[in-house]
Amino acid sequence: MIVRSLESMVGTDRDVHGETWNSRRFLLKGDGMGFSLHDTILHEGTVTRMWYKNHVEAVYCIEGEGKLEDLDNGETYEIKAGTMYALNGNERHILTATSTLRMVCVFNPPVTGKEVHDEDGAYPLIEE
């Protein structure tokens, strides 16, 4: 059994910071669950361009408001607490945080915790 609290991860190697976000990683590849689970904050007023070409991701917004733009088809979606989206087709997308967004994110394959967004906005596949 794995039990972790958010406060126990803050300031550790499971608390990963990017330019527009920070992600607290509850489950990583090394935990052996077959997916990774993140509590991610996107900072108010930021625009984050992403393309998870090596992963599928499901995202559940639990706080804040923003806009999701699917760069593959031009559609936009309002994001607010209670909204879920799944990038089941490796869609290129932009997430604009009109207020601070707090998201619960699940990645498959799971991330190792060492990934950072590359120039495409993607995480590389890292083998441990």
Automatic annotation (TrEMBL):
<comment type="pathway">
    <text>Amine and polyamine biosynthesis; ectoine biosynthesis; L-ectoine from L-aspartate 4-semialdehyde: step 3/3.</text>
</comment>
<dbReference type="InterPro" id="IPR014710">
    <property type="entry name" value="RmlC-like_jellyroll"/>
</dbReference>
<protein>
    <recommendedName>
        <fullName>L-ectoine synthase</fullName>
        <ecNumber>4.2.1.108</ecNumber>
    </recommendedName>
</protein>
<dbReference type="InterPro" id="IPR011051">
    <property type="entry name" value="RmlC_Cupin_sf"/>
</dbReference>
<dbReference type="Pfam" id="PF06339">
    <property type="entry name" value="Ectoine_synth"/>
</dbReference>
<dbReference type="InterPro" id="IPR010462">
    <property type="entry name" value="Ectoine_synth"/>
</dbReference>
<comment type="function">
    <text>Catalyzes the circularization of gamma-N-acetyl-alpha,gamma-diaminobutyric acid (ADABA) to ectoine (1,4,5,6-tetrahydro-2-methyl-4-pyrimidine carboxylic acid), which is an excellent osmoprotectant.</text>
</comment>
<keyword id="KW-0456">Lyase</keyword>
<comment type="similarity">
    <text>Belongs to the ectoine synthase family.</text>
</comment>
